[in-house]
TrEMBL record:
Descriptive protein name: Spermidine/putrescine import ATP-binding protein PotA
Domain ABC transporter: from-to ranges: 2-236
InterPro entries: AAA+_ATPase, ABC_SmlMolc_Importer, ABC_transporter-like_ATP-bd, ABC_transporter-like_CS, Mo/tungstate-bd_C_term_dom, P-loop_NTPase, PotA-like, PotA_ATP-bd
Family per record: Belongs to the ABC transporter superfamily. Spermidine/putrescine importer (TC 3.A.1.11.1) family.
Signal peptide range: none
Xref: Pfam families: ABC_tran, TOBE_2
Gene Ontology cellular component annotations, sorted alphabetically: ATP-binding cassette (ABC) transporter complex
Entry keyword set: ATP-binding, Cell membrane, Membrane, Nucleotide-binding, Translocase, Transport
Keyword Membrane in record: yes
């Protein structure tokens, strides 16, 4: 539905020009919850602003339903934006805020009233329709901003870090609410966040960006289980990176030798190598903490960090020069007597890891 085709964006001119986006290509499908995810400054907002029409590409094209958008100003695109700051009118009531855009579009009084009622119901704000927006909570303001953006029934809703001002609990609630709104309305959502957990929870598909480029596009599971490269593996979730030697390769399966002489099998992922030095990525949940003689790897417990639901164990592996982190759930019947400085073993799940491109 939205085709972003080889788009680059330069700010400034000549030698001092800054390349905020570098040959970005993405296809966003109709009725999809699509997320642009990446660290601060990677170009997410710039890309979103280009879909909205606030910014034009330096090269490349953006198409909507097969039509080039370049000469369409923002107000003529079937696209609406929810900003981080909400940008509500504080002197107007909730209902007036929601109806504002529709009035500007010259819709009839009865149509405006009917849509406002419907939208307030959708975001569960009917009871506060007459309250001024300066007199409602941050979470409620967020709902009003959403209702206002959805009211003209755009084909695409762009959301730029809309939950970042909310506290943790409310944020979790609104994540589910946004997902519900997206599937109830069938509108395509393009959502910007730097929060990987938020992206994994809400999205149908995610584009992971860094330094103006797309690193990987895929569903949450695909991105988490099969990161395309080291950046993605590091940015999404926790990952242990271990240096390894590839000693054999058959299709997607690689035989690796690690320090301590241990041999493991791992997914070869997207790398072309059949031998030589590689990096093995292993998620913490794919390893178990065991007695020193009961796993493949040994080391010393360096740090124990309590997280409520689970505890993270940091292990200095013998001969690796790297730390290995694994997580264990804190169950009431489990008594762990381990302490910093104890010798421990690490048992790796079979074929759990993935070989990465650097
Ligand atoms: P954040 O999560 O911090 O909002 P982002 O990924 O959305 O980051 P952008 O706002 O798209 O990043 O900015 C991408 C890069 O382009 C940044 O390095 C930023 O400084 C630069 N940039 C953005 N707008 C302009 C501008 N108008 N002029 C010059 N540089 C700009």
């Amino acid at each position: 539905m939205i085709e972003i085709d080889n788009v680059s964006k330069l700010f400034g001119a000549g030698d001092s020009a800054f390349r905020a986006l570098d040959r970005v290509s993405v296809n966003i499908r109709e009725n999809e919850f699509f997320t642009l995810l990446g660290p601060s400054g990677c170009g997410k907002t710039t890309l979103l602003r280009m879909i909205a029409g606030f910014e034009g590409p330096t090269s490349g094209q953006i198409l909507l339903d097969g039509q080039d958008l370049s000469d369409k100003p923002p107000y003529r695109r079937p696209v609406n934006t929810v900003f981080q700051s909400y940008a509500l009118f504080p002197h107007m009531s909730v209902a007036e805020n929601v109806g504002f855009g529709l009035n500007m579009l010259g819709r009839s009084k009865s149509e405006v009233a009917a849509t406002v009622t419907e939208m307030l119901k959708l975001v569960r704000m009917t009871d506060l329709a007459d309250r001024k927006t300066s007199e409602i909570s941050g979470g409620q303001q967020q709902r009003v901003a959403l209702a206002r953006a959805l009211a003209p029934r755009p084909k695409v809703l762009l959301l730029d870090e809309p939950l970042s001002a909310l506290d943790f609990k409310l944020r979790k609630e609104m994540q589910l609410e946004l997902k519900r709104l997206q599937s109830d309305t069938g509108i395509t959502f393009v959502f910007v966040t730097h929060d990987q957990e938020e992206a994994l929870t809400m999205s149908d598909r995610i584009a992971v960006m860094s330094a103006g480029r797309i690193r990987q596009i895929g569903g949450p599971r695909e991105i988490y289980d099969q990161p395309a490269d080291r950046f993605v593996a590091d940015f999404i979730g926790d990952t242990n990176f271990l240096p390894a030697e590839m000693i054999a390769r058959t299709g997607d399966s690689a035989q690796l030798r690690l320090a301590q002489g241990v041999e493991v099998t791992a997914r070869a992922g997207q790398i072309d190598k059949t031998s030589g030095t590689v990096t093995l990525a292993i998620r913490p949940e794919h390893a178990r903490l065991v007695a020193p003689d009961a796993g493949q790897l040994t080391g010393v417990l360096d740090e124990i960090v309590y997280f409520g639901t689970d505890t993270h164990y940091h292990i200095l592996l013998d001969g690796f020069g790297t730390r290995f982190v694994l997580r264990l759930q804190n169950t009431p019947d489990e008594m762990r007597m381990m302490q910093q400085g104890d010798r421990v073993g690490v048992a790796l799940a079979a074929s759990a890891g993935q070989v990465l491109k650097d």
